[in-house]
Amino acid sequence: MRQLILPALLLAAPALAQQKPAEAPSPERLKADVEKLVSFGTRHTLSSPDDPVRGIGAARKWGAEELDRIGAACGECIKVARVGRTFTGPRAPNGVEVVNVLGFQQGEDAKRVIIVQGHIDSRVSDVMDITSDAPGANDDASGTALVIEAARILSREKHKATIVYALLSGEEQGLWGGTLLAETAKERGWEVIAVLNNDIVGNTMGQNGVRVADRVRVFSEGIRASEDLPGQLARRADGGEDDGPSRALAKAIDKVADGMREKDKDALDVFVVRRPDRFGRGGDHEPFLKLGYPAIRFSVGAENYDQQHQDLRTENGRVYGDTVDKMDFPYLAKVTALNVATIRRLANAPSAPSSVVLDGALSADTRVKWNAVPGARGYRVYWRRNDKQDWTDVRGVAGLTETTLKDVVVDDHFIGVSSIAADGSESIVTFGTRPPRN
């Protein structure tokens, strides 16, 4: 096993400067990046790590150079590192070194981290075929290009939290890049406030020929993979199956999208899918869920399965293969814009309250208490009737860490609290539970 050294995330960052008008993601840049990734022929994790023009090694080198170039343009605000480990499994029986390329944009708080990621590796029909061309344009050069474009835009700004731009390897072999990064986060003691996994985010024509260009799916878990049985039973008793941290993150993204659509009717709607990933499948956010981190997956509104994990071929007039010509780059730019807006909100917000406790049994009122959050200028208390999925009511609270909701019966309502920064940036919502039992 080889572990490459990360940059130190311990130095104080400069104070937030006044932000310039936000730059829009460029469909042309995104297309150029996807075409460049496709030009490496195959990016199979078991392909050559050393060939200068073909294979996973050449692709990772290019990705690192792009992040380096972006960092140089912002006065070295992004530091690039590689983290590697040898994995062995059915899809790599002789073992393979999985290397993630990471760009660190340090914020005021070095250990509060937002991760935006895509996987750089690709494959064809036979997952063990390391020589055939595997363009992987949508799966997942689209996500890789999105991460790089997000770095271009966000590197021009200062943020409170640290942003990690992650190009992961080994996804097709068993989510190994995600596993490596999640375990690295835990080993380093990062407070991961959000993981945005982007995988298959660049097409609008579905398998059935129907074009879906107005929405993006956001997948999130309900019952937490990290909870033991007592924890799951406690959540069940409180009715919090739809309000864990990852579901709260998905709902926050939906709220960000609603705000974008108020300003631009062509911005994307969010389809909040209430399961961790597509039916029977998985992605690189799932290793983070197992360790208890809030993590979601972005994916297109309509997949085309003829363009995923396929040998390049035409059979009976049906074209197979994950190629650039099947992509929609204005759509990919919109998904990128939603990622950027979400990162911007969360990177400038305080942490979410670590605990929200409710007291109101046998009462017509509910008392809400939460822990003070460093840097918070105020809080928002949300509630909804138990037969609703989305928050319907909200109260702002400043200078206090408790409030009483008159005539809000706790038996009939769900309640949560978020933290608010001076500029209005808001954390995800922490779900309210019963007081801990002695």
Automatic annotation (TrEMBL):
Gene3D superfamilies: Immunoglobulins, Zn peptidases. Transmembrane segments: none annotated. Residues 1-17 form the signal peptide. The keyword NADP does not apply. It is found in: Secreted. The keyword Cell membrane does not apply. Keywords: Hydrolase, Metalloprotease, Protease, Secreted, Signal. Residues 100-313 form the Peptidase M28 domain. This is M28 family metallopeptidase.
